[in-house]
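Sample entry (235 residues):
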Amino acid sequence: MKPRQVLSVAFLSLLCVLPANAGRVLVRTVTCEGQSFNYLLTLPLGEAAKSTKFPAVLLLHGAGDKPAPMIDAWHSLADKEKIVLIAPELPRTKEFEDIAPRVFRCVVEDTKLAANLDSKRVYVFGNSMGGYLAYDALAFDSEYFAAVGVHAMGIDPQYDSILDHATRKTPVTIYIGDHDPMVSLKSVRRTVDLLKKHGFPVRYNELKDHDHNYYAVSAKVNADAWEFFLGQHLP
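Predicted structure, serialized as tokens:
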């Protein structure tokens, strides 16, 4: 059996929570940095038209979450806009953070074996812990991802220097609730100022009466993030 066909029962069970109309859903495993990573992939309805190149969004879930709810939150918009969704299962370890940018590229490259991607329109959207990792993509994958979206996360001051690694000023859209009990407004506002100081194009959104629950506002946030992404592509 080929490595990418060896999927855990637990990961396969994620499919049962996906909506029936979430386009064509694939489960894949790829070896990156010497480790196996599972991810969910949804292809737009009618994706068989291989002459069409599709934009893609790499979805990075929060701590304790799974790929399937992220797919669920994006599926309606993805079907409407013909977006490929890529949702890897993210380890919650310090060791993964060190290799995350390389793993993200590896997963997207594996996706290209199953979908006809527009390489100039591959985006990242991360929630909470996934947002933390999305800033790594912004810094270390600035020539690979066209733009980044983050919900409920800022850059920790001890990691400000990651921005020095960006060879391109990756556009970023950031969302934070004004009643988030886990991530302070102050820290996210500091991140916005830091990004702007370094020349990154930033779209900033404070959500009134919103806490840390991404899924409560995902329809609104995703639509706004996609509108932002539409204006961004690699040169």
